[in-house]
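quick one, 211 residues, struct below
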Amino acid sequence: MKTIWFIRHAESLSNAGFPTDTPHAIGLSEKGLVQAEALAEQWRTEPELIVVSRYSRTAYTAAPLCRRHPQVPVIELPVHELTFLAPGRYVGTTEDTRREPARQYWERCDPDFCDGEGAETFRHFCERVDAAVQALRERAEQRIAVFCHAYVIKAILWRQLHPDAPVTADYMRDYFQFHLRCVVPNVMVYPFESAEGEALKMLSPFQIKVG
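---
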């Protein structure tokens, strides 16, 4: 039986309200650094593989667990966050600044719309998350800790509810409504089990306790 833990990264500087320059190089806040250490201290099952995304906040979150288990290999897979706004237009901005253009993006509800250089369509996001999950299921390791992002975890959860649905405007619209209802806190862990040839089955999520 394979177990895959999908873990949202610790609190980032952007989550904490600080201005940031680029999606891929956002660091952790002071609280986030404490959360990452707490995760490593409270983790009870040694993974056989640690996965991070190409966005540095996942690597920073995984770092204490990697130090605790230095023999465990670490690889990067395309489980990075959905960047639907063109980064070049939002250098030095906060999440609050980006709230209105984000609203306009989701209101447009076009799965093939790309906001500009460095942005991603919703369809491509869904396809790469589906492909990443399949790649994880095909790996030989039986215990895999995946450090990723809120939109990614919600895409996995939404796909579990709609395993064969095509990525249409309706799928995107319903996903966004799910996104608004589904809260995924920092360092929340979503465990899944899968036997060979069977669908992923979600176990009970849990959150790392800090303080």
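The chain has one domain: 2-207.
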